[in-house]
Amino acid sequence: MKIAMLARNPNLYSHKRLVEAAEQRGHKLHIINTLRVYMRIAARKPEIRYRGEALPHYDAVIPRIGASVTFYGTAVLRQFEMMGVYPLNESVSISRSRDKLRSTQLFAREGIGLPVTCFAHRSSQADDIIDQAGGAPVVIKLLEGTQGIGVVLGETENAAKSMIEAFGGLNANILVQQFIKEAGGEDIRALVIGGKVVAAMKRKGAEGDFRSNLHRGGTARAIKVTPQERATAVKAAKVLGLNVCGVDMLRSNAGPVVMEVNSSPGLEGIENATGKDIAGMIIEFLEKNAKPHNTKTRGKG
Questions:
Q1: Other C-beta atoms within 10 Å of 296: how many?
Q2: What's 2-95's CATH class?
Q3: Which is it for the CA torsion 276, 100, 62, 68, positive or negative?
């Protein structure tokens, strides 16, 4: 196969591993800088152009689109889809996963476990928002935040109220969520490929940090998820329409609750923690599924 990967940094561990896994299986994988692509949009002869030339035909495309370039990246991916190239994850699904509010609403509609969540914009009703989220402590998130940035813990009623009012002063949309104390600063990352959990790890935040992101000093170890956690992760991926994703969950007294679904999960942490060849599994999934126009939306969304 000829595979394109939309990515801005070819030196990231995840990107190098995907290139390596593809080449080991006899495929060619070209890394294309997402923001350097431009498109000719026409009914009869659409093109994707790069460095002054039309890109050749590819059998599949792997979108590794950074959160900060989601709009442009999904537009480029949509052009690939319209031209019949099979995407590892579809543009519509990526857009859903990047919108914290939309994904939370979809999960709630489908009965997936969630922390109680409130959504607001410059609200003067901070007291009621905190109360509706279960009372302090609460987790306050910027809607556009990612990788633990724009996520703060309001430990007391006064602190939480001050934070909500401060974010409101920035003209920001915010999510206020119930704090799952019993999780103890740990979460679970379940890696889903093709409707199956293929690997899982438990992450623990750095000392004094309630966020468990590995790049913020957290640690990880391989675990075996429970049947309920496995079913929750698979259902979350299905609801968003993602073929490959990392589903982040907390263990609450009421069962697993989904915090976030990452459509471009990093491979370094989970490969090191579990010893599994996740990159190889992703390429194997493409081998089985990459057929022309084999998408749900065909770029319509």
A1: 11
A2: alpha beta
A3: negative
| Phi, psi for 29 (deg, rounded to 5) | -125, 120
**Tokens for 174?**
């915010």
Q: Tell me how far apart the alpha carbons of residues 83 and 276 are, in angstroms, rounded to a whole number.
A: 34
Residue type, 41: I
Long-range contacts of the stretch 106-111 (C-beta < 8 A, 24+): 106/239, 106/240, 107/236, 107/239, 107/258, 110/235, 110/239
Q: Which two tokens stand for residue 42?
A: 């026409």
* DSSP 8-class letter at 191: E
Strands 138-142, 151-154: pairing is antiparallel
CATH superfamily of 117-179: ATP-grasp fold, A domain (3.30.1490.20)
Whether residue 1 contacts residue 287, with contact meaning beta carbons closer than 8 Å, is answered with yes
Question: Tens of pLDDT along 144-181?
Answer: 655 556 789 999 999 999 999 888 777 788 899 999 99
The one-letter amino acid code at 260 reads: E
Question: Domain boundaries in the chain?
Answer: 2-95, 117-179, 182-276
| Burial class (CB within 10 angstroms; exposed 0-12, middle 13-18, buried 19+) of 57 | exposed
What is the reported pLDDT for 299? 47
Gap between the Cα atoms of 126 and 118, Å rounded:
11
- Element containing residue 201 per DSSP (H, E): strand 196-204
The three-class DSSP label of residue 166 is helix
- pLDDT beneath 70, residues of the chain: 122, 144-149, 206-217, 297-301
Radius of gyration of the CA atoms of the chain, in A = 20
Number of CB atoms found within 10 A of residue 53's CB: 8
What architecture (CATH level 2) is domain 182-276?
Answer: 2-Layer Sandwich (3.30)
